[in-house]
Sequence to fold (792 residues):
Amino acid sequence: MAKEKLSSESSKNARELILETAAQVFADKGFDGARVDEIAAKAGIPKSLIYYHFKGKDQLLEELLEMFFKSYRNILREKSECGSGSSKYNKFLTEHSDLLRVVMIESLKKNTKIPTVFRIVEILLEFEKEIYGETDQNREEKHKRLVAEFFTSALPMAGFACYSDAWCDYFKVDKKELYADFADAMQKTHGEYHKKQE
Amino acid sequence: MAKEKLSSESSKNARELILETAAQVFADKGFDGARVDEIAAKAGIPKSLIYYHFKGKDQLLEELLEMFFKSYRNILREKSECGSGSSKYNKFLTEHSDLLRVVMIESLKKNTKIPTVFRIVEILLEFEKEIYGETDQNREEKHKRLVAEFFTSALPMAGFACYSDAWCDYFKVDKKELYADFADAMQKTHGEYHKKQE
Amino acid sequence: MAKEKLSSESSKNARELILETAAQVFADKGFDGARVDEIAAKAGIPKSLIYYHFKGKDQLLEELLEMFFKSYRNILREKSECGSGSSKYNKFLTEHSDLLRVVMIESLKKNTKIPTVFRIVEILLEFEKEIYGETDQNREEKHKRLVAEFFTSALPMAGFACYSDAWCDYFKVDKKELYADFADAMQKTHGEYHKKQE
Amino acid sequence: MAKEKLSSESSKNARELILETAAQVFADKGFDGARVDEIAAKAGIPKSLIYYHFKGKDQLLEELLEMFFKSYRNILREKSECGSGSSKYNKFLTEHSDLLRVVMIESLKKNTKIPTVFRIVEILLEFEKEIYGETDQNREEKHKRLVAEFFTSALPMAGFACYSDAWCDYFKVDKKELYADFADAMQKTHGEYHKKQE
DNA sequence: CATGAATGAGTCTTCATTCAT
DNA sequence: GATGAATGAAGACTCATTCAT
Fold:
């Protein structure tokens, strides 16, 4: 079973295959719960190949996070450039929900001095203007916006990306219905907030 | 150093000490990252005492979660009974942020069929009437509300409880300021939503 | 076979058994060539017990060396106190030849900034007076003596302790004969040197 | 850094470069502590090139030892032919101290049935006549001499070659001073012995 | 002639858990 | 009621060696 993976994906190089598989396993079990053996087995490669390409389990995580934030920045750039709405953003989160999960799990650990999620805030900050238009607000205003953006927009959306599948399973609702209800809730809450700001 | 703990807290029985310490360590490192050895060391007791009182690491988690959801239900009951506002609720989350962290971390793992956070939704559901008044809405309406409540209220508040300290550290803001901004954001988003529902 | 060890030596505590066995294995294969598995097997205990008592393979070496130099100092003290001759010293080296081997092997590695053998010189230095009588020689004289003592006495004797068995095997000579010839050679070389000093 | 090696020494063929580098690394860490990877890295060549030229790590050691003993024999021949003193011999040992180290390290391992150092004795035996003149001594006399030669001459000299640098470092003495003191000690010990024999 | 990629058999170490007292 | 010692099953990582090109 695992072997199929190898043959069917042998086109892409081993490094990427490992990274992809690691993302899955990390999302499944969390970084600490993940086993290098499992990554290797799932990727259909010997464990030692992982150590040929990466320094260790840690590097796997690092590179994955780097990749995630790089594409997060890209999606935000695109969004601000072509004015594409939040549906694209939502799509991004859903497609990258594996890594999003990992980011959130690692960030929640108290001993993490700087939660990785804050890089999301940092990136949000970079695109301030595109999101809020040319503003010459002071630090306080800026912080207010950041807080609102992070806690009442980014977090719910990330939560949606991570929990929607399980929610549908558990509450026996259709994916479409959940999405509609979520979008509606977001509109009536965070959407309302943005309206107010104008 | 660890020994002080023992003497200063030896009044409370070992069982509770272990549970408390476990909560801390789980919050610090996540369940998978936590080591029974570390719990014992931090509690200043021999590791074997943990196995004397508990079946294993798993039981530690189970009991902790059970405790958390029991008090969560209590706080919701109080809230609905004496009509105390969300500040009390917020206080609860902050005080129990260690366990909240654990709940959220475990819930985020994809292989968790039923994310533990959903028990929050279940409990929310129990107090439906108290929160929304006597409603005879249909299933769809109920779901809509649940979605809104979970993703745009519970999640942001939980996130706030978990990240506020790190946020203050990282963005160099005062705890009061952050709380004020967060409360304001919640008011303008989820608060607005509740207004609409009337 | 390995199990016998456990039963026959279970009187002495595990820690010492491990240390003893480690000394043997280190002497056999050198520290780098030694396997923790082999130490455990030879001692008839599970590998994990080694890690219960010691931090790791390194600590095994450290403690062993510490022990060796401690008893080396003792033998020198005895020698200087009761004036017992070099035969006792020789006996000591022969009895501790396992650790002596380890010391010499590790010392020979070029990347060892401070060869452990030099601790022998240090200890020799401590017993200066006892060995050479009250001397008020200057630094140069002292150094001269140290060099002679180390290279033409300590080293040959250590070499004898390490190689005598193999020598007898290889050159088909009796242990007594070899010892007699060695003692004779030492007498005619280093012994002569000491005579000269008077 | 490693790359320079390649370019600056690419004249000499890879085989020799590998051998040279291996000698260094073996001397640094001992055979067991040495890593093929490190040899390759230090030589600035791909690891696989080592396996292209040699059967394995073992062969590297074998060839190196063979080379060492061959040149040892040569130096002894020269010495006996042109009557050049021990300074030339000493120079040889110093220049080949890397391999001498390896020989001594490997010889000290107890599980080595035949310590490689004994080849030194064998070679010494070959040049018996040149060293001691035409002698028709019996086996006992021969053995006596061999023992004296090995333990009170070869060993101290080898030790000097291996430890002199570290000694100077540690005891803060000049190389010249150490050499002078060592030569003096040798003269007063082993030198005295040879005088006696006449 | 040479090499980047790959690999299997180790090798050290960890950890949850149990045992004997 | 408590605990120091013990342990097996994994876990991360290493390393000499081989392969495909």
User: Anything to note?
Assistant: Residues 64-197 of chain D form one domain. The mean pLDDT of chain D is 87.
